Inverse folding.
């Protein structure tokens, strides 16, 4: 689906490589005709839905059944889960991913495009989160992709950069760098341990609580390794819905589980703590290399 985003009609040209376009109800900032990268970010949720370095296949996975509708979460890309992660409150994974953000800065050179989106407290957020806040999402897009979430204010929050990655075949990949200890959400949030790399033969939903700073998605079918570098994190979440859930979740195709894996930079076991003097941060950097 991501290829179709780059063919949408241009509504406004923002700079040589940046255009504003519309997919159904949602406006997008689309990066095209740049020497290093193609990418797209929706204003709703500051949601990166496509990142493709020049000369490479698409890196992020986007469901062909995902709705681009106001107030509806997009399935795929990199949703920003904030100020909570999971089903601990309504809406699921927080409100940041379903509210409109402001494009507050953009710049580019021959190597990269930089975008900043901003979300502030409002009458829409106060019933869910009664704290003044300013949330900024900084994107640096080129041959690598950096996403930095900066939370200003005084409060605690859990969060995740809920990244979906395209894989050749879920049964053939393995992920290293997640660490040994995890909370198994498929098994009633029981603590468990992992030996060696993580593979996916069914539903996997795990919060790894002692991960390394870099997770590696080894994909022999596509002949590449996706490097996911984590900063300011406490956890890394690994998720694939498996066959049964893929057939029951409305915005997934029956076989969607075969073509994606989520490896998410997160603060779940240790919440983000923001103070007036020290904003909280969560950052993820993506790189590709041949396997």
């Amino acid at each position: 689906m991501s290829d179709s985003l780059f063919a949408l009609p241009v509504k406004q040209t923002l700079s040589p490589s940046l255009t504003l376009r519309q997919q159904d109800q949602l406006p997008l900032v689309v990066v095209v005709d740049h020497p290093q990268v193609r990418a797209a970010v929706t204003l709703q949720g500051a949601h990166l839905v496509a990142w493709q370095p020049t000369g490479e296949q698409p890196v992020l996975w986007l469901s062909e059944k995902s709705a681009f509708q106001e107030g509806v979460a997009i399935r795929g890309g990199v949703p920003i889960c904030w100020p909570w992660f999971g089903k601990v409150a309504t809406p699921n994974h927080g409100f940041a991913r379903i509210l409109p953000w402001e494009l507050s800065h953009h710049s580019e050179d021959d190597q990269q495009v930089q975008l900043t989106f901003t979300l502030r407290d409002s009458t829409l957020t106060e019933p869910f989160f009664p704290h003044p806040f300013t949330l900024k999402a900084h994107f640096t897009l080129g041959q690598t992709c950096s996403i930095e979430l900066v939370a200003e204010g005084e409060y605690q929050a859990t969060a995740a950069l809920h990244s979906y990655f395209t894989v050749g075949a879920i049964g053939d990949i393995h992920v290293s760098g997640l660490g040994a200890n995890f909370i198994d959400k498929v098994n009633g949030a029981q603590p468990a341990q992992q030996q060696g790399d993580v593979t996916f033969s069914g539903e996997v939903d795990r919060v790894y609580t002692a991960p390394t700073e870099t997770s590696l998605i080894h994909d022999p079918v596509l002949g590449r390794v996706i490097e996911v570098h984590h900063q300011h994190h406490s956890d890394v979440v690994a998720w694939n819905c498996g066959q049964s859930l893929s057939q029951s979740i409305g915005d997934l195709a029956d076989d969607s589980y075969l073509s994606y894996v989520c490896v998410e930079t997160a603060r779940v076991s240790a919440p983000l703590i923001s103070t007036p003097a020290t904003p909280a941060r969560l950052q993820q950097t993506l790189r590709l290399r041949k396997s």
User: Anything to note?
Assistant: The helical segments are 2-5, 242-248. The chain has two helices and 21 strands.
